[in-house]
Amino acid sequence: MSSLPACPQCSSEYTYEDGTMYVCPECAHEWPTAAPGESPEEQRVVRDAFGNVLSDGDSVTVIKDLKIKGSSSVVKVGTKVRNIRLVEGDHDIDCKIDGVGAMQLKSEFVKKA
């Protein structure tokens, strides 16, 4: 017996979970796995190295020299990164760093500015 909810559109019991969404294979309806009134982004809380909650659009500061994989460049301590975007995965911050370009960072190496 499946513990997944039935499809709200066609009442099919053959739904499956795909990431943060439920999917109905019969009518192709998709809906979020979050509880009603709560978006999937509200379930996951991303915190910086000091425990401060991060959100989209925040500014952060790098707290450790970070080597850039595949390059001889380094993101130096104290580099300020503006307008971050939170994403799913191991590297949970997507950003653009001046002089380096677009990259992803781990939240454990930044502090909220």
From TrEMBL:
<dbReference type="Pfam" id="PF03831">
    <property type="entry name" value="YjdM"/>
</dbReference>
<protein>
    <recommendedName>
        <fullName>Protein YjdM</fullName>
    </recommendedName>
</protein>
<comment type="similarity">
    <text>Belongs to the YjdM family.</text>
</comment>
<dbReference type="Pfam" id="PF08274">
    <property type="entry name" value="Zn_Ribbon_YjdM"/>
</dbReference>
<dbReference type="GO" id="GO:0016787">
    <property type="term" value="F:hydrolase activity"/>
</dbReference>
<dbReference type="InterPro" id="IPR013987">
    <property type="entry name" value="YjdM_N"/>
</dbReference>
<dbReference type="InterPro" id="IPR004624">
    <property type="entry name" value="YjdM"/>
</dbReference>
<feature type="domain" description="Protein YjdM N-terminal">
    <location>
        <begin position="3"/>
        <end position="32"/>
    </location>
</feature>
<feature type="domain" description="Protein YjdM C-terminal">
    <location>
        <begin position="46"/>
        <end position="113"/>
    </location>
</feature>
<keyword id="KW-0378">Hydrolase</keyword>
<dbReference type="InterPro" id="IPR013988">
    <property type="entry name" value="YjdM_C"/>
</dbReference>
<dbReference type="GO" id="GO:0005829">
    <property type="term" value="C:cytosol"/>
</dbReference>
